[in-house]
Amino acid sequence: MITALAETFPLRNPFTISRGSKTEARVVTCSITRNGHRGWGEGLPYPRYGETVAESIAAILALPEAISRAALQQALPPGAARNAVDCALWDLEAKASGTPVWKLAGLAQPKPVEIAFTLSLDTPEAMRAAAARQAHRAVLKVKLGTPADMARIEAVRQGAPRVRLIVDANEGWTPEIYTELAPYLIRLGVEMVEQPLPQGADDMLAEIARPLPVCADESAHDAASLPGLLGRYDVVNLKLDKTGGLTEALRAKGEARRLGLKVMVGCMISTSLSMAPAILVAQGADWSDLDGPADMAQDRANPVTYDDRHIHPALPQLWG
Catalytic one among 95, 239, 242, 253? Predict the structure, then answer.
């Protein structure tokens, strides 16, 4: 039996990027029950990619009851719906076999992963204060993407003078803004910038110097999308809601390495059920951004745990 339902998880604080703010995460939870065993997974339909909760649920419920992971890759396109089902199938197999997903996938036993903690877009003063509160972290990911970004990143550096920094423009820059800001960001110790130009308008990245490494987020989805990024991007951000599940995320990670691209493993604002499989992909990644549940007022039972620098592998009571 396959079920799918919408669930809403409130955030403690509004989360703001250049495209807008959100106060809750509305996810799709898929459960698959066979022979007395139940597996589950989660996807977050993202309007930026034309996804809705209702359409994702309908797509899941239209699947054959006995669908396999292999058949799923052709039955649904990459996206949140396939992610929820794919991860549910992995969890189901782990529960039925008594074998953890990492072993089923031929991976090494996962270890804690050093992650970036995200600073929401705000005024420079508010971002300085937020950075100071998070200055004990290993890495901060700073949301940018507006004409006032220089003041914001300088304020963050003042608030957290020793932390490693990456920035995410969320498609909010132009080639001219990147060229102007890159030297200053490098001086402030920024290691890379995510998606400075809009998807579909990023060809200019191949024409300009890129002294600050550039990461594809909205422009990178599954493994098939990666060869087309060469010459424009240096890093790819792999999210299971974009790849359409753990199966394709592992394949995309291998393809990125084959192409010589660095890898970041990211997430949507979603619960610990989404983080659990992503932690497996994040093993050995160059950067990881898996703090999706960190500011949630409510999370799943048996949630993943964080320390000041890391996310820890999920308990089998949660997933896998």
Answer: 239
Q: Indicate if 242 belongs to the active site.
A: no
DSSP letter at 306 equals B
How many angstroms separate the CA atoms of 228 and 239, rounded?
Answer: 18
DSSP 320: -
Residue 20 has pLDDT above 80, yes or no: no
CA 272 to chain centre: 12
Write out the two tokens for 229. Answer: 């990024």
Q: Between 149-159 and 124-133, two packed helices, what is the crossing angle to 10 degrees?
A: 30
Which of 112, 16, 91, 19 minimizes the C-alpha distance to 245? 91
Cβ proximity of 275 and 281 under 8 Å: no
CB of 304 closer than 8 Å to CB of 311: yes
Note if 262 is an active site residue: no
* Total residues belonging to the chain: 320
Residue 137, number of CB atoms within 10 A of its CB? 20
Q: Is 231 left (phi over 0), alpha (psi -120 to 50) or beta?
A: left
Parallel, antiparallel, or unpaired: how do β-strands 310-311 and 113-114 relate? antiparallel
Sign of CA dihedral 80, 269, 40, 89: positive
pLDDT tens sequence across 85-128: 999 999 999 999 999 999 999 999 999 999 999 999 999 999 99
Dig out the tokens for 202 from the structure. Answer: 């990023």
What is each CA distance from 27 to 37, 178, 221, 274, in whole angstroms? 23, 33, 19, 10
User: At what angle are helices 272-282 and 80-97 packed, to 10 degrees?
Assistant: 80
CA distance 308 to 310: 6
Extended strands (E) in 144-295? 164-168, 190-194, 214-216, 235-238, 262-265, 287-288
* Residue 78 backbone phi and psi in degrees, to 5: -55, 140
Half-sphere exposure of 301 (CA within 13 A, CB side): 2
Tens digits of per-residue pLDDT, 182-229? 999 999 999 999 999 999 999 999 999 999 999 999 999 999 999 999
Catalytic-role residue among 143, 242, 253, 262: 143
